[in-house]
Structure formats: C-alpha cells, structure tokens
Amino acid sequence: MLRKIVDLITSLKLTIVCLAAAMALIFAGTLAQVHFGIHLVQQRYFQSLFVWWPPEGRSFKIPLFPGGYLVGGLLLINLIAAHVRRFQWTWRKLGIHLIHAGLIIMLAGGLFTDLFAVESHMRLANGEAKNYSEDTRQDELAVIDITNPEFDQVTAIPETMLRRTRIIEHPSLPFQIAVRNFFPNSRIQMASESGNDPEPIVNRGIGAQVSVQPLARATAPDEQNIVTAVIEIIPVDLASGGTQVSLGRWLVSDALGAPQTFSWMNRTWQLAMRPARYYKPYSVTLQKFTHERYANTEIPKNFASRVRLIDPERSTDRDALIYMNHPLRYRGDTFYQAGFQKDDSATILQVVHNPTFLAPYLACVIVALGLILQFGYHLFGFARQRRGTATA
Amino acid sequence: MKRFLPILPVSLGILWVASSFFPPKPPGGDVDFVRFGKIPVQVGGRVKPLDTVARNSLLIIHSKQTLRPSDGRQVSAIKWLADTLFNAPMGDAYPAFVIQNGDVLGLFGWQQSDRKYFSFAEVTPFLKQIEEQGAQAEKLQAVERSAYQNAILNLRNAISLYQRLKNSVQPEGTTNFSAELEAFEREIPNGAKAARARETGEKFDQAQLDRVAALMQRYEKSAELAYILPVPPRGQSSDWRSIGQTLLQSVTAGEIDPVVRLYASLGDAYRSGDHAAFNADVDLLTNRLTQTQPVGTQRARYEFFFNYVDPFTHSMTLYVIAFLLACISWLGWSRPLNRAAFYLLLVSLAVHTFGLVSRMYLQERPPVTNLYSSAIFIGWGAVIVALILERIFRDGIGAACAGAVGFVTLVIAHHLAGSGDTLEMLQAVLDTNIWLATHVVAITTGYSAMFLAGMLSIIYVIRGVFTRSLTPQTATSLARMTYGVVCFATLFSFVGTVLGGIWADQSWGRFWGWDPKENGALLIVLWCAIILHARWGEYIGQRGLMGMAIFGNVITSFSWFGVNMLGIGLHSYGFMQKAFPWLVGFMLSQLALMTIAGIPLKYWRSSRTSPDSSLSTRKHEHFEFTPPKLAVETTQNES
User: What's the start-to-end Cα distance of chain B, in Å?
Assistant: First the structure.
C-alpha cells in the first residue's frame, strides 16, 4: 500500500497530470479575468485549494477543479519526492538536476511570496509626508483614543475580523464592539438625496442620516470597494466583566470622510473605517512629481517621484528618485512608481515588502544553466553521431 | 543543365531586390517628391522623413499606402500629403476615406454599393454627426463597441487626423502664406508698441493691435491643431516646434524662423504650380536642416531609403517562391530544386535581416518593441533555425518550413502595420533597452521555435496522410527536428518568461501577477514541459509528439494574440477585433490537423506504400538521442 502511494507521488504520470491541470487552470483563470477582474480571479483560481461553484453567496458549494495551491503543492511534492527517490549522481544528469532544483526554489519562493509578501500603496501629494502605506484591498476599523494631546492610541480591527466576528474585544478598549451589519461593498448616499430610507438601526453620528445600498464586490482593477459596517459600542464593566447598556450604534464606512467622535468615561474616541495601514519606522516626503510626454502626443515618456527619506533610527536623511523600472529599496520595502493623480498633483507609490524576492532571480539562473547543459548535451551527442554516420 | 538550374531563380531574386535599391529620378521640371519626402520632421515624438508621415497617415485614413482616384492613375502617399498640406481643395477631392459599414453609410443617407472610398469634400456635410456619434462610441470600452461604433470612431479619427494635417504647415485656406508672414513680421514691432502704450495708458492704435491679435489667434489655433512639427528645436530642448508655435515665439524674438519662411515659400510655389521654385526651396530647406540637424536629417534619409526598398514585401514574395520550390522538390527533381529553394531563402533572409537591422538602427532599440516587430522577429528567428535544420538534413523540409513561416509571419506583420507608425516611441515602462533586448527577444524566439515545431509537424502529417513521400527515414528525421526545436523553445520560453517576471519585479513590484500575457507565456512553458516529459516517459511516440507540437501552435497563437484580444491586463495593446476571426480560424485549422494526425496509421498513404513501414513500430527506437530516463525505470540505453 505504502509502496503504491510512494509510486504514485513520485510518478511521471502525476507530473504530467499536474502540468496539464495547471494549464487548464491558467487558461480558465485568464478568460475569467474578463468578467471577474484580476484580484478576484487570483483568489478563486490561484490562491486556493479548489475552484468552487457557485463562486460565492450560496449556501452550498462544490469543488469544480483543483486550485492553484493544490496543483502547485502537488507538483512541488512530486518534484521533490521523485528526485529524492531516484537521485543518481552522474555528470550526464547534472542538467536535469539543476533544472528541477531551480524549479523547486521557484515554486517554493512563489508560495512564500504568496503567504508573506505585503503589497500596499503610498499616495503622496506634493510636499506631503507619510510614515505609513495603505492596503488597496483590505480595510480596517480604527478606534482612536485621542484624549491625550501628546499622542493618539490607535486600535485597528482588520476587515476580515469584522466580517467574521460578531463581538470584538481587545485589552486596550474598555468596551466591546458588536458588528451588527457588514457590507463588503456598498453605495452611501444622504437619505434625503437618494429617496431611500436611512439605515434603520443606526442611532448615533452621521450614519443616522444616510442610506446604504449593498453592492457586489468590485471587479475592475481600478474600482475600489466601499466597505461599510454598523457597529454597536457596549461598555464592559471592569469589575465584573459583564456588559452594560449600549452607547449606541454607529455606521462606519470608507465613504464617510471625517472620523466620528464619541466620549465615555472622560475619554474621547474616534471611529473611522479606512484602508488598512502599515506603519514604517521612517517617513517619506514627496518633493516633486514629474510626468513627461513626447512632444505633441499623449504618450507618456517618463514618470518620476523625487522623495525625501527620513529615518532617525538609521541616521538617514536623503533624497531619492523613484522612476519607471528604477524602484527604491529601503529596509526590506521596495517603492515603485505605480501611478499618479490626473492633474499630476500627487504620486502613487507601490510599496512591497517581500522577503523572498530574490528566489526567482536565483531560480532563473539555475534552471537556465540546467537547460543549457541538458540540451547542449543532446546537441553535441547528436552532432557526434551524425559525424559518425557521415564518415561510416 | 540541372547543375545550373538553382542559379536562375536565385539570380532573378537578387536582381529583383537590387532594382528596388535605386529610387527613380523624377523627369526634369517635375516636382521632386524624392527630395521633399526626405525632409525630417517630428511626429509622435520621433524625427522621421515626410515620406513616412505621408505613408503612415494614408495608411490610417485609407488603409493603403497609395491612392487610386477614379481616373485610374496611382497617387503616391507623398503627393497626397503635399496636396493636403499646401493645396487643400485638391486634397479634399481625393477619395481617401474608407467607409464600408452599412450603418455609417445609412447615417449619411447613402446606400451601400461597390464604392468604399469617399473624399473629404463628400463627408464634409456630416462632420458634426460624425463627431457626435464618435463621442458616444468613445464612452464605451473597446470590447463593448459594436461594429458600427468602431467604424464611426475610425472615421472620426481619420477625419481628425486629416484636419490636423491640413493645418500643419499653414492655416487652412491660406492663399499666399509668404506675403502673410511678411505682413506679420512688419506688424510685430508696431503691435508690441501699441500693446505697451495701452498698458501705460497712452494713446495707441487700436486697429494695429487688432490686426496683430487676429493673426496671433490664427497661429495659436494652428499650433493647437498641428500634427507635424517641422521646425527644429532651439536651445536645450529636444522637442521640435509647430509652425504656429514658432510664429508665436517670433513675437518675442522679433523675427521669423527661416525654416518657417522656407515652408511658406515652397507651399506657395507648390500651389501655384511653379515646380522649379518648389524644388529650389526644398533644396534650401534640406541644406539648412542638414546643417542644424545633421543626425536627424541623416536618419530621415535612411528611413526614406528603407521605406522605398520595402524589404519585408520583397522577402515575403521570395519566401513563398522558396516554399513552393521546396514542396515541388519532394515530387521530383529533388536536388536542384532543393538547392534553389535554399539559396533563394538565403537571399530572402538577407533582405529580411536588412529590414530588421534598419529598424533597429532607426529606432535605436532592440528588435522587438511592439506587436508588429514581434511578427517580423518571430519570422526571422524561425527562418534561421529552419535553415540550420535544412543545412543538416538537406531534405527540403527545413526549407519548406522556412518559406512558410517566413511568409506567414510577414503577412501577419503587414496586417499589423495598419495602425500607423510601426517605429512608434515607447511608453515609459517599456523605455528600457536591457529588458527589451533580453526578455522580449527570448520570449519571441520561443514563439518562433514553437511555430517552427508546429510547422514541421504539419509537414509530417500532410505528407504522411496525403502523399507517399513520408518514408520512415523522413519521418524519423522530422521527429528529431521537432524534438530538437521543442527543446529550444522550452529553453527560450522559460528564460524569457522568468526574465519577464524579473522585469515585472523591477517595475511593478511583483514577480508574478497572473496577468493574461504572463499566463500565456507560462502556458507555453508548461506545454513544452508536458511534451518533453511525455516523450521521456514514452507515453507518446512519433505521432503523439507531432500532434502535441501542432497543439503548440494553438497555445502560442493564444499567447501571442489571443490574450491581447481579451482587452484586459497590463499588456493589452488595443483590441484587435479584425484579427479575431483569423485567430479562431487558425486555431480550428490546427485542431483539424491534429484530428488528421489521429487517423489510424493504416489509412495513411505513406504507410500503405510499404507494408513493413516502421511508422507504426517506431515507438521505442525512434530516437538516436538518449532520452533521460528521469522517472521511468527502463533499461538505460547508453550510446
């Protein structure tokens, strides 16, 4: 039995089946982007064990096809197992070994990147400084204690937690936050303008005057979800740990510009739904954004952001230029020129934290070397043979 | 006799190509369009000769590089441009605009007929409608537009281009531009004096001020509309200037740039039919630009020469002849025909290479910068590899492949050129010669190899099923070639894909993002890996390899074109609706060929010739290569 399993996971047939499944998956995942957008397709097809049907929002679902993690994982296991089992050291096979060792590095690196890399944006107007970047797809509910004029104490609750958990507690908060309603994407309008009724259960803040219309999650690459939630603040009795009378229900949303304030027990708090922030131990200031075009055309010639990097910890205060194909790498983060505001008044930098970014570079060199050795070996063998037959 | 046979087609080919290297001299006293066509200007950010501007504009407006008015004579692009620039009534009368869509014709109240070319004068009454309808269509995504909307949008763009051209050198409707400029120059100091006087509150000549202001408004409009920038840059800037802009600048400079005067004078001469004066002005202008812009002028001259030689059309024709010669060689007279095909291919390749290298020189870039140049390069790479195969095997197969792939890719390139300048400036992210030279070249070389492998397999299938010429020996050498080429494709596709990932890591911050073009490249790599592993594991024999290589054509064409047609992703270079049926047709034809390959061997004509043909028993001893026994425990056959 065990032998059969070992045979199976080391078999060439499994390799071919996995490769074919990968092709089918990638083909389907490419076509699906036309309707679902690249981010959703990535999650459903490539960053999952199975591709499910129907996609979401139903009570039942059935696996339609193995997803990227399953196919890639099996391929990785198959690759490693086959090589462990059949490894033979001969010069002839050096090429083959190099190719597959490189592929292992590449697949494993891809998996690590998927799990640990963080992509975010930093949007800077001319002259603006920031010490954080923002997630483009994940929100957070920031609960900010602004009582002390010296500093703010921020407690950030990730969107995923809001979606899954009904009651949220945290040691830094003297109250529970109960999620009464959650909209992954929505449209917010003043109730007086839209003609719809305001969200009925909200009784505090601006939210009592707005109507919420639930929307399907955004698919186009330039579309953003407007995350909205209705939360209730329920103070906790410190002595008994029991709950007290609720302070009320607020509506929090990306669409609301200013944070909402409330006071309790002589402390003042702010509530804001906003893109999740990643704080940095340094700050970046935009000195100047330039956008050049070719004469008499709209074809972009160059985008560049001149920024100032200040890091007291590392005694760094310098200017840097970020432009196409020339990112700035600093303390494990890489800043890329990603976009700009239409009137060129602000730049958008992509900030990537990826500890394994070197894996593909390494893998590429190893595999290419292996392929050259392997096919070179064939070619020379073939040429030798032909010369042999020609002289014979 | 047979020994000399190859010399005939080859020398004819050389003569034919050579004849195009010498542009004809215009008969004395006629307008010298050759010298006029060589004048450098800047359009789309690039310095190019007027000849290129004329050809590309006419291609956008007319879909062809020459015009044929109803009287049957042929009008060259440069003559059409000269009329458009200097003699609007003449330009307006050419039937240049293509209108085929029945709904567009219906919009104008016209019935569909054989006629598909219309003049600007004919569409003038409908300009407002075209503008409105075009604006409506523009609001939609390219993929969502109907055929009518695409047609109206194309027409609107063509008209807008034509109108911009008309205003490029002189404001539309000018009768004597030189005189107007002289008057302008005279008025400038008085106008400036009047303006100063008005500012300080003194008495000033209102009429004087109005005259200058009216002219300046006219030049402002002309500067806004201008498509061509004919005046070389001044000072530090590298941007050329439009006539209107230069005239506005001359208010502060106090004098009019001599280049503007020369253009005005040659335009007036052209309009009045004074050919000698026109030619003399062209000479003066050329001399002046040669002095101030030596590099630009030289490059423009070279580009004119390149346009004139038209290398790709020539090599396209030669490829097809070579292909036919190679095919005929399998029926009889093999040696001489074979050699003729081979040497003709060398001539064709030389012309092809000349075109490729010329483009690299003109653009100062690696060979592949857009879809058009990828087609040129894929053909070039495939022809070279196929010729190497032909040199080794000498059986006409490599030659036939070279001819077929070279021809087809150049036809594709020809159809991709319809969008205008094929040497266009590159978007910011592409402005990097390192990655263009490595990633793009590797990927396109991979495409070349995939198509070549597919072509070899098609020859195998066609010859095997429909003719008796596929002997076991030929079959084996075809299989070997295909296998070798697939290996080559694997190497380049893999390296190219990974280099693309690294480029993406450098410019967007992620190695892999599941973008359609990335996925397309990965599909090729995976398919190559499947072919190689299936063969090493002996799950497929000769025919299986061939069938899979044909399917490689489907995958490669999807990766090359199909993903661009999805209209999404970072690599979409515009939606190509017209090409879609062709792509689908190509894919279906490949699937049909695969089905034919699947016909049982007993029905193959080639296997019926010799009952003991080893076609069917090739499975285990088909290759002299020693396949690496990676995962299958069979006996090692060390050679």
Answer: 44
Interface of B with A in 168-227 (CB under 8 A): 226-227
| Burial of residue A265 (number of CB atoms within 10 Å: 0-12, 13-18, 19+) | exposed
Q: Does A301 touch chain B (CB under 8 A)?
A: yes
What are the tens digits of pLDDT across the range A303-315? 899 999 999 989 9
Q: pLDDT tens across A254-308, in order?
A: 888 788 988 888 889 999 999 999 999 999 999 999 988 888 887 888 889 999 9
Q: In this structure, what DSSP letter does residue B231 have?
A: B
Strand segments (E) across B481-553: none
C-beta atoms surrounding B601 within 10 Å: 15
Task: Identify all chain B residues contacting A16, using CB atoms and an 8 Å cutoff.
Answer: 530, 533-534, 537, 539
Residue with tokens 């809001």: A162
**Which residues of B are less than 8 Å from A120 in CB distance?**
none
**Residue A356, CB-side half-sphere exposure with 13 Å CA sphere:** 17
In contact, B445 and B508? CB cutoff 8 Å? no
Residue B497: predicted pLDDT:
93
Task: Check if the beta carbon of residue A145 is closer than 8 Å to that of residue A269.
Answer: yes
pLDDT digit string (tens) for A1-30? 888 888 888 899 999 999 999 999 999 999
User: What is the model's pTM?
Assistant: 0.85
Task: Name which of B424, B494, B631 is nearest A12 (Cβ-Cβ).
Answer: B631
* Residue A54 preceded by cis peptide, ω within 30: yes
Q: How do the residues of chain A divide into helix, strand and coil, expressed in percent and rounded to 5?
A: 35, 40, 30
Say if CB B474 and CB B395 are below 8 A apart: yes
Please answer whether residues A225 and A218 qualify as being in contact, where contact means their C-beta atoms are separated by less than 8 angstroms. Answer: yes
Q: What is the pLDDT of residues B616-635, one digit of tens each?
A: 444 433 333 333 333 333 33
> What is the SS3 assignment for A324?
coil
Q: What does pLDDT average to over chain A?
A: 86
**Spatial CA neighbour of B436 closest among B335, B330, B491, B365:** B365
Residues B254-265, mean pLDDT to the nearest whole number = 90
* Distance separating alpha carbons of residues B542 and B474, to the nearest angstrom: 12
**B214-240 confidence digits (pLDDT tens):** 888 889 998 999 999 999 998 777 789
Contacts of A68 (CB under 8 A, 6+ apart): A25, A45, A46, A47, A48
Say if CB B356 and CB B380 are below 8 A apart. Answer: yes
Identify any residues that bridge with A335 across adjacent strands, giving them in sequence order: A328, A351
Distances, alpha carbon B613 to alpha carbons B474, B601, B605, in Å = 12, 10, 11
Cβ distance of A20 and B530 shorter than 8 Å: yes
Contact B399, B382 (CB under 8 A): no
Cβ–Cβ under 8 Å, residues B55 and B420: no
Amino acid at residue number B293 = Q
Q: CA torsion angle for A194, A195, A200, A206 (degrees, to 10)?
A: 50
Minimal-distance CA residue of chain A relative to B631:
A12
Q: Determine whether the interchain pair A381/B639 forms a contact, defined as Cβ–Cβ distance below 8 Å.
A: yes
Residues 6+ apart with CB under 8 A from B142: B567, B574, B575
* C-beta atoms surrounding B368 within 10 Å: 24
The pairing of beta strand B75-76 with beta strand B66-67:
antiparallel
Helix (H) or strand (E) holding B532: helix B516-536
Q: Which residue of A has its CA nearest to B537?
A: A12
Does the interface predicted TM-score (ipTM) exceed 0.90?
A: no
- pLDDT tens by residue, A102-136: 999 998 888 888 888 888 999 999 999 999 999 98
